[in-house]
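Consider the tokenized backbone below.
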């Protein structure tokens, strides 16, 4: 397997394991992130920063990789590692929400959080071709479909949060 020698593979894998560790630490309240920064809790800022990066950079990446194919590698690196770090921020928020004594309304937030690790998984499989038996077209189709699901669900989630839906 060629990935064993690839530094990007190991860095991405490390970020995924670090995200799992963050989720456990936050969920078990070993590190308190439950405080306000301005009008909102710190983890809300985390999730907004992570979500905004994903929501803004993903279409930029898609456009730029076609418009500037010679810059494909740096664009891909920003996409992969920016989204992995964004996923870590979003995971910290989700873990903090799930550790509350009274559970929040899970609705669209739960759907979003199911979509996010699935997006990470399909992106990871696509980028590093971990499953040789899976055709690249299959992982690409799933990844793109999940990205559309992310965009639709985030709009509904925001509307729900604003009390519109």
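A designed sequence for it:
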């Amino acid at each position: 397997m060629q990935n064993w020698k690839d530094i990007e593979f190991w860095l991405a894998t490390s970020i995924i394991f670090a995200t799992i560790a963050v989720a456990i630490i936050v969920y078990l309240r070993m590190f308190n992130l439950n405080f306000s920064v301005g009008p909102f809790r710190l983890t809300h800022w985390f999730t907004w920063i992570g979500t905004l990066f994903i929501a803004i950079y993903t279409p930029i990446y898609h456009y730029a990789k076609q418009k500037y194919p010679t810059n494909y590698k740096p664009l891909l690196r920003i996409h992969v590692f920016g989204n992995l770090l964004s996923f870590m921020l979003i995971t910290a928020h989700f873990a903090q929400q799930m550790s509350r004594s009274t559970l929040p309304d899970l609705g669209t937030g739960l759907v979003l959080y199911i979509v996010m690790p699935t997006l990470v998984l399909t992106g990871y499989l696509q980028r590093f071709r971990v499953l040789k038996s899976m055709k690249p077209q299959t992982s690409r189709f799933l990844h793109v479909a999940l990205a559309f699901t992310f965009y639709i669900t985030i709009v509904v989630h925001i509307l729900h949060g604003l009390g519109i839906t």
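The CA atoms of residues 51 and 86 lie 7 Å apart.
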